[in-house]
């Protein structure tokens, strides 16, 4: 429950005067005050939930193509939307969000951990580089994103496997999230919950690093050019979309490998190693049609998801900050 914090209110005039007294060049740096770790977790969870819910039908369709389910032809945008339409006719509108509950169970802690740890890594690296109150230099900016993505992926990976299984199977096979965990553990072994973990981490390191680096860099350049500390919401969406487009394009082949290894137990394939999976995909389907299968779908959904995620996080972050400045505490 929100409660006033009188002591904090008495300090506001001094803090505002200090900001106004800063030289113009300093105001273009990343001077946004830091919220607590709990606040960052809440902002990240909300951002991840909103973004993934919006693009859930496209995400499910992409997983089906990546998993090479029988009866599904070669990927094309037209074929993807035909699959969405046929799924709607056969199973109803809500079927397009099948597996989204598992997605929320995974994405909310994943996004919460990723955004929160990113803030913490920025503090840590900012102190090491003497720039705790400024935008980080390029390399630590890239490193903070990679570390944040690695931390989140490591802690939430089994939930990603469950989400992938629910997305590519009929609803009769798995009734709920716990059913997936139980059946995988009993029939395939607990280690299956970590199948594809290595390509995931190898993909997350460049993806998260490039995505956060691009977004933070665009905000920094925007601040230097416009002399505004924070961009408008539509500008955040554009910056996030650019970041998502670049990051996902760079790491996409490893995403395909990860999905093949995760869904091998239900597709009848024998993908067990990264090299073996890549070799089999390239041999049977080719480089472009295999390792980049569904990339055009990612270009459609990825920038939208990342743009919404970054924008939702920043807006929620700023809202909580204003509540603190007004004398209220949420956490």
TrEMBL record:
Pfam families: Mito_carr. The keyword Cell membrane does not apply. One of its GO terms (cellular component) is membrane. It is a multi-pass membrane protein. Keywords: Membrane, Repeat, Transmembrane, Transport. It comes from the Eukaryota. Coiled coil: none annotated. Solcar repeats lie at residues 35-124, 136-221, 231-319. GO terms for biological process: transmembrane transport. It is found in: Membrane. Belongs to the mitochondrial carrier (TC 2.A.29) family. This is Solute carrier family 25 member 42. The gene is LOC101167609.
């Amino acid at each position: 429950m929100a409660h006033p914090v009188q002591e904090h209110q008495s300090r506001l005039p001094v803090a505002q005067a200090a900001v106004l007294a800063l030289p113009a060049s300093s105001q273009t740096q990343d001077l946004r005050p830091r919220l607590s770790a709990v606040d960052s977790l809440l902002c990240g969870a909300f951002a991840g939930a909103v973004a993934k819910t919006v693009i859930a039908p496209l995400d499910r369709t992409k997983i089906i193509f990546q998993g090479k389910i029988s009866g599904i032809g070669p990927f094309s945008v037209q074929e993807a939307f035909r699959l969405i339409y046929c799924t709607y006719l056969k199973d109803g509108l809500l079927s397009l969000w099948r597996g989204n509950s598992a997605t929320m169970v995974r994405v909310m802690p994943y996004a919460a951990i990723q955004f929160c740890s990113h803030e913490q890594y920025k503090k840590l690296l900012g102190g090491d580089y003497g720039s705790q109150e400024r935008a980080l230099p390029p390399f630590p900016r890239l490193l903070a994103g990679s570390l944040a993505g690695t931390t989140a992926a490591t802690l939430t990976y089994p939930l990603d496997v469950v989400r992938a299984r629910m997305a590519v199977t009929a609803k009769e096979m798995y009734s709920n999230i716990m059913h997936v965990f139980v059946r995988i553990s009993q029939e395939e072994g607990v280690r299956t919950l970590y199948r594809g973990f290595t390509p995931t981490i190898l993909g997350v390191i460049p993806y998260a690093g490039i995505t956060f680096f691009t977004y933070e860099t665009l905000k920094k350049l925007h601040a230097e050019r416009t002399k505004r500390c924070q961009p408008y919401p539509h500008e955040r969406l554009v910056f996030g979309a650019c970041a998502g487009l670049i990051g996902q394009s760079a790491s996409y082949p490893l995403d395909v490998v990860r999905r093949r290894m995760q869904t091998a137990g239900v597709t009848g394939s024998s993908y067990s190693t990264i090299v073996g999976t890549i070799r089999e995909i390239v041999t049977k389907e080719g480089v472009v049609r295999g390792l980049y299968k569904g990339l055009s779908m990612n270009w459609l959904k990825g920038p939208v998801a990342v743009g919404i995620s970054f924008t939702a996080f920043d807006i929620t972050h700023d809202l909580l900050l204003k509540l603190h400045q007004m004398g209220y505490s949420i956490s």
